[in-house]
Amino acid sequence: MRTLLAISLSALVGSLAWAGEDSSLVIDGEEIKIRATAPAHADALDEVYSGWVFRTDETQALQMDDFENPAFVFVDQAIDMFSKVDGTEGKSCASCHDDVAEFAGLRPTMPRVVDGEVVTMEDMVNGCRTKRMGAEPWKWSSASMTAMTALIGLQSRGTEINVKIDGDAAAQWEAGKELYYTRVGQLDMSCANCHEDNYGNMIRADHLSQGQINGFPTYRLKNTKLNSVHGRFKGCMENIRATPFKEGGEEFKALELYLASRGNGLSVETPSVRN
Ligand code: HEC
Ligand code: HEC
Question: Is 194 among the residues known to form the active site?
């Protein structure tokens, strides 16, 4: 079985000179760290790279200018939503949070572990909607949710990711790591088989990255909308013909914590542009 798989993977993956090595990402005069020394806990990697590094010049350029970046259409919608009253309490986000800029510094620490559970940005937004506004929760990958998490994430753009993995976060982090290295699906592959063993190589027409999540939510040219972290995980699982875990479920949350921590040292890039 192992040998067969090794053959099928090497048939899929081809190598390519790695053009992105010396490019840099500067937005509005601010340098975004797209490569960094790998954190000690990502011990199979020497360096970590943002997914931006692996994209074509054209895709990269879209993210270098907020006027070109298609994600900003949705960010603008979120700015409007922020002060829109919703729910039985007659409140908007702005009723309690004067300015969205107060969330600067939050995104690089997300997700967090509270009382043994992983809390994501989506959980925080929906927590306020249901408990404080009397409003319906937004669906995980809905247009409203991804727009709002993009707006909140943007407040920390350029700040280094620094997710906590020790202490009470350790058990969830270990669970996420386990999932990252577990082979699943008809193709019997793990996340690591592509994003750790083969980043920099081509898989079919796609240039494989390390699968970092520092740029999420991300605008994809493929589906012309913002994509959540869990939405992306789901897509990758479907591609290897595995039954995906549930968006917002505990497996994807643990995996999100683990993946976020592999990006410690990169900058928040939200909202990024990918193919
Ligand atoms: C009725 C008041 C109220 C409303 C309305 C409200 N929030 Fe909150 N929100 C809070 C309080 C209180 C906290 C907890 C503050 C803290 O822990 O520092 C909080 C926390 C948060 C946090 C986490 C902040 C942190 O640093 O931990 C986010 C993100 C957030 N709210 C987003 C929103 C969004 C988006 C909306 C609108 C969809 C919203 N909130 C609506 C009161 C509100
Ligand atoms: C068969 C190879 C393959 C496997 C296995 C795989 N992915 Fe991916 N993944 C891709 C490709 C191809 C892309 C798009 C190009 C890129 O960014 O690598 C991608 C993109 C991503 C991205 C977006 C990166 C960015 O910068 O926007 C994330 C996050 C991701 N994958 C996570 C995962 C996780 C988590 C798993 C395991 C559940 C997984 N992938 C398994 C092939 C794979």
Answer: no
